[in-house]
């Protein structure tokens, strides 16, 4: 039964007073956004919403005392995926088996890897850095999915940090084919092989100097503590805090540090050195915003930490070769003193998330929430991470570098995309200080998969969302993150299509339901929200939104052109975000072409026009062109967006298609357009040495290349530290090959030119810091397939004096009581030891420490560990 009473309501004055609307569910728009508390207000017989001055907690009076029954269960409906998920990452037992195999491995000469456990290893040891599913060849998957072939053989991607090797190396391998029951893997399993993994890189070797995380942070901490110990009094005086534990020249370790270090990348240009700028910052909440006026440039190239050294330091724009030189200027009075930073004690919560300011009217009430009164409308195979909703279906996978990917994305049974996956997230900063002017972060290196966070139910995702876990096996051990992925249907709050007319069948609307898949990664200061939104007409919106903390900088007048002041002594620095995505389109099969449409102006004389307006007709025309060669497929969106890029299959036409031999373009070839959404930008500065070859994907709005197993990613884990000679140089994909009727990959950028503003404090807002692209059918269908939707209304035009009637295809919203919301809970990260037994909860603490990586050196070090570190004498 419906929650809504029969009712009459005037239509818009546009229709005159005679037009009336009659439907039992005229107010459907409201129903999915009512709060549970407001639910009873809609009981039959109630004719108006209650006035807004009702006290909270007051019981609503209703005309109809009937208490509704409970709503259907809103858990996702279990399903069985049509095939097994061949991209799914290894589970705990499988990773344990592979780890054991690696530990026991001996080569033909009887030599093993001499591995140290991941959690105990230092940079000087050999250890396992990654165990991960390696995607099978597409041809094998299509044979399995489309032609009843065998399930593809599975391989593991293995990354080893070989600190004991000479020279030390980062080595990558493919291990496989793995047995069908991977957890039963044994050393004698044949024909298992361990082979170097090189074919996916344009530079096959990865120098050890390009490694991301130090395997044991304490070396770096010890070095920096030793460096800073003599400056204890000076930093207390000049910066209002100290580095390292203690109150007496760094020797007695009594109090926690009040100053941290924030590091930059890249560490290197081509691997020939490993150097880092480190800026000091306050150790109070929101430390990312609280950079101080002191920077150190350090050389960490040597494998012997005793040989690390300070190259120079900068304070108040004065450069010193050594700390002694700085101290001498400080003590003899020649040092030009900078402003003292904002005192942490005076406003120590301004950068936190505690509620601030005046309460707004009625804000003590919970806002509306969506309720699926009739139960869920999507199905999930949780084992195979396969989801279906309203004709859409896809598989999910999860990896260390970039987190979530979507595979075999189908609409109404047809594959649209073989793969959707983020590739890299780039942030390039500018500034008048050493830190900002040298920072280029590529977050793939930090691991947007291992930095994926549990989602906060009711905030990050709706209460009804299905939450799924994610697992990774890295240098941090095996991490199982619960509630890492959420999937949910939502009412967009607007019709997908509508019209009001006067002839039969013209008036009505289709509800704009959407289905969302979401993850959030917190990479140091920033939170990136990845959204994939599926719509009823076949459109997929891919969106990235950012929140979290800006990377702050120390404010002085020289910074005016490079950012915006957000506090007395702090500023946000201008920067570009560019996030690259891979879209492996399969439009009506794998033989696809890229059609570039442009709109051009023309002046024509046509014989039928009178002289009133002149003989010349000025108008636009559509010019369609097939881009035939990869070298012509590094593309920008046309000026004023006068055009479109469409992936088409020239041999597959929709019902209205026809051939024009002269142009060799099939008109109305079935296609999908890459439609720029919000902020479809590319990198601003194309000439920096710090982004010379490692982010070539970011230098155009989009690019289309022939799909190859040897070109699976536009970046790599180590591109971050090798701008001059990266493992993946994207431009090398574009070598003049034909892209006409070939299997194509589109590489598309999202991003923002982030010009900071005071409202970025305390945190950046997802409404502005967001970017999107829509992949939308373009003659793929013969008409709008969303017209299939039963959640639509058709109105019948009334005869004079009669009322409007509406046909809603028999779909009624249940009158029922939604289940009580679960008590708030937030899952703790689950870790596992190398043998698969539950991990020590203390490891979670180490995870937090790693999460902030180079952005907060010393930030999460626990007191006991740090006590053991003695400053260098
Ligand atoms: Cu930003």
Automatic annotation (TrEMBL):
Keywords: Copper, Membrane, Metal-binding, Oxidoreductase, TPQ, Transmembrane, Transmembrane helix
Modification comment: Topaquinone (TPQ) is generated by copper-dependent autoxidation of a specific tyrosyl residue.
Domain DUF1965: 293-357
SUPFAM superfamilies for the chain: Amine oxidase catalytic domain, Amine oxidase N-terminal region
Transmembrane helix in keyword set: yes
Bilayer-crossing regions: 26-46
Top EC class for this record: oxidoreductase
Signal peptide: none
A Pfam family: Cu_amine_oxid
Domain Copper amine oxidase catalytic per the UniProt entry, residue ranges: 369-787
Required co-factors: Cu cation
Catalytic residues identified in the record: 443, 526
GO molecular-function term, one example from the UniProt record: primary methylamine oxidase activity
Cofactor info, note text: Contains 1 topaquinone per subunit.
EC number(s) given by UniProt: 1.4.3.-
Chain positions covered by the region annotation Disordered: 335-376
A GO-annotated cellular component: plasma membrane
Highest taxon of the lineage: Eukaryota
GO biological process, one term: amine metabolic process
Similarity section: Belongs to the copper/topaquinone oxidase family.
Protein name: Amine oxidase
């Amino acid at each position: 039964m419906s929650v809504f009473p029969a009712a009459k309501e005037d239509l818009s004055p546009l229709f005159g007073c005679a037009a009336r609307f009659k439907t039992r569910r005229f107010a459907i728009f409201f129903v999915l956004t009512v709060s549970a508390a407001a639910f009873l207000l809609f009981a039959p017989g109630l004719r108006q919403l209650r006035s807004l001055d009702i006290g909270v907690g007051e019981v609503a009076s209703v005309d109809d005392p009937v208490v509704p029954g409970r709503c259907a269960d809103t858990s996702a409906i279990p399903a069985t995926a049509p095939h097994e998920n061949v991209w799914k990452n290894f589970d705990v037992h499988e990773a344990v088996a592979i780890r054991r195999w690696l530990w026991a491995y001996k080569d033909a000469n009887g030599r093993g890897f001499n591995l140290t456990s991941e959690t105990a290893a230092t940079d000087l040891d050999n250890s396992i850095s990654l165990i991960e599913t390696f995607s099978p060849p597409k041809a094998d998957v299509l044979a399995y999915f489309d032609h009843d072939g065998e399930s593809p053989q599975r391989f593991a991607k293995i990354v080893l940090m070989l600190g004991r090797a000479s020279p030390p190396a980062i080595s990558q391998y493919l291990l496989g084919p793995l047995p069908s029951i991977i957890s039963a893997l044994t050393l004698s399993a044949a024909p298992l092989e361990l082979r170097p993994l090189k074919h996916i890189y344009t530079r096959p070797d990865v120098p050890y100097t390009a490694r991301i995380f130090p395997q044991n942070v304490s070396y770096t901490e010890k070095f920096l503590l030793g460096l800073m110990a003599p400056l204890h009094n000076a930093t207390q005086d000049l910066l209002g805090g100290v580095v390292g534990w203690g109150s007496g020249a760094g020797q007695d370790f009594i109090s926690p540090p009040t100053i941290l270090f924030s590091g930059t990348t890249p560490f290197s240009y081509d691997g020939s050195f490993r150097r880092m700028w480190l800026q000091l910052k306050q150790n109070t909440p929101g430390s990312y915003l609280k950079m101080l006026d002191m920077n150190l440039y350090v050389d960490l190239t040597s494998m012997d930490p005793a040989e690390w050294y300070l190259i120079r330091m900068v304070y108040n724009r004065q450069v010193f070769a050594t700390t002694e030189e700085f101290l001498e200027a400080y003590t003899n009075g020649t040092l030009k003193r900078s402003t003292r930073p904002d005192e942490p004690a005076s406003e120590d919560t301004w950068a936190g998330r505690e509620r601030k300011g005046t309460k707004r009217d009625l804000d003590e009430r919970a806002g509306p929430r969506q309720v699926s009164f009739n139960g869920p409308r999507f199905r999930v195979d949780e084992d195979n991470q396969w989801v279906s909703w309203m004709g859409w279906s896809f598989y999910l996978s999860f990896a260390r570098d970039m987190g979530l990917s979507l595979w075999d994305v189908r609409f109404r049974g047809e594959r649209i995309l073989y793969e959707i996956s983020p590739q890299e997230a780039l942030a390039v900063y500018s500034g008048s200080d050493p830190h900002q002017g040298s920072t280029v972060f590529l977050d793939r290196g930090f691991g947007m998969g291992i930095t994926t966070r549990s989602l906060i139910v009711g905030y990050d995702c709706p209460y009804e969302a299905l939450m799924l876990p994610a697992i990774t096996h890295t240098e941090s051990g095996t991490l199982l993150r619960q509630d890492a992925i959420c999937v949910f249907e939502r009412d967009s709050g607007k019709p997908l299509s509508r019209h009001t007319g006067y002839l039969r069948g013209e008036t009505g609307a289709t509800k704009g339901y959407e289905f969302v898949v979401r993850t959030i990664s917190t990479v140091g200061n920033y939170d990136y929200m990845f959204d994939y939104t599926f719509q009823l007409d076949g459109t997929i919106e891919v969106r990235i939104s950012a929140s979290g903390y800006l990377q702050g900088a120390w404010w002085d007048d020289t910074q005016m052109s490079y950012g915006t002041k957000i506090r007395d002594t702090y500023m946000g620095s201008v920067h570009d975000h560019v996030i690259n995505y891979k879209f492996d389109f399969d439009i009506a099969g794998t033989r696809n072409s890229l059609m570039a449409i442009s709109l051009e102006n023309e002046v024509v004389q046509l014989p039928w026009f009178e002289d009133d307006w002149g003989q010349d007709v000025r108008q636009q025309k559509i010019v369609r062109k097939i881009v035939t060669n990869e070298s012509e497929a590094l593309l920008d969106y046309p000026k004023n967006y006068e055009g479109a890029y469409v992936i088409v299959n020239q041999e597959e036409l929709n019902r209205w298609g026809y051939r024009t031999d002269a142009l060799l373009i099939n008109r109305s070839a079935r296609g999908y357009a890459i439609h720029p959404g919000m902020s479809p930008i590319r990198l601003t500065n194309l000439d920096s040495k710090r982004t010379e070859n490692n982010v070539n994907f970011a230098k155009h709005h989009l690019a289309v290349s022939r799909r190859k197993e040897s070109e699976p990613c536009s970046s790599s884990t180590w591109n971050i530290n090798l701008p001059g000679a990266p493992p993946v140089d994207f431009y090398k994909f574009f070598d003049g090959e034909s892209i006409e009727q070939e299997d194509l990959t589109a590489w598309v950028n999202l991003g923002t030119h982030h010009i900071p503003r005071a409202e970025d404090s305390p945190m950046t807002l997802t409404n502005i810091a967001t970017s999107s692209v829509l992949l939308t059918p373009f003659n793929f269908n013969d008409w709008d397939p969303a017209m299939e939707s039963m959640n639509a209304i058709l109105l019948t035009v009334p005869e004079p004096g009669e009322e409007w009637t509406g046909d809603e295809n028999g779909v009624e919203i249940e009158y029922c009581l939604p289940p009580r919301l679960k008590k708030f809970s937030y899952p703790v990260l689950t870790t596992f030891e190398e043998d698969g037994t539950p991990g020590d909860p203390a490891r979670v603490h180490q995870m937090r420490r790693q999460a902030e990586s180079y952005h907060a050196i010393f930030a999460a070090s626990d007191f006991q560990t740090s006590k053991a570190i003695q400053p260098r004498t």
